[in-house]
Request: fold
Amino acid sequence: MRNIVITGVAGLIGSRMADWIAVNHSEYNIIGIDDLSGGYIENVNPNVEFHQVDCKSAELKEIFAKYKPEIVYHFAAYAAEGLSPFIRNFNYQNNLLSTSNIINECIRHGVRRLVFTSSMAVYGNGTPPFDEQDTPAPIDPYGIAKYACEMDIQVAGEQHSLDWCIIRPHNVYGIKQNIWDTYRNVLGIWMTQYLNDEPMSIFGDGEQKRAFSFVDDCLEPLWKAATDERASKKIINLGSSVYHSINEANEILKRVIGNGETIYKEARHEVKNAHPTWQRSVELLDYKDNTSLEEGLTIMWNWAKEQPLRERFRWSEYELENGIYDFWKKPEIVANA
Reply:
């Protein structure tokens, strides 16, 4: 049987991609890898042969040697962009070192194509809409790590003939997202805050613009990223062509819920407007913007209401506390401020 490896298979994109492949391409055996640090075993499709493994570990070699996958989707990452300046070591190990390990195994076992999900964070403070031809200029360690991964993958293509497709998704959301992490996934954070009888928090004035992308609209294009010749050795923005301010997104969610309050907190170090061009995803991956933000949030909210009230994740210790925002400070830091 033909094999596909999906890293981050317990997270949003990985789990939904596995669901889609299981339904649409049963000729493939799906090998799922996840260390469950940010995803949940309940998200993993029952047709997936699951391995609880850290991509940095030596066990990765054994998995590739056993299954010799044709296609590898590398979705595993910790995408807390705003937090990354305060967890630099973890950020680089989790994103850059893990990816280098994946690249080694793809080269060693002749993988037909590696699909890597990078990030809008590589663009930094450019002039939106961000285009794939723009020179990346990330402003935080997360974006730096993702850009470094992109460059390493391209070098592997030049030196070792590794075929690849780099996807830059933007603000993907939907069912199976981790809504319990207090540092990432703003739409999920708002849902969890509401379910815990808390106001929804916005950093700064809320006029930051983002293109929120419903995960299910991205799945068939992601398949083509791995299998279509048009996508070979291409960098492609993937996601919605419609952008909203954070304030607008918050109002849409409150309309979906039928209730909710909002509070404003100190501004973070972040890009003000981060919305991309989308033409290349249409031309190369046949992307279709099928789901409006209100429709997608309705689907996600109906799912979120049925989820267990999990404990929300907070870092017990940051690598660096200098300059950390008040809303992320630990109680003892606040007391001594």
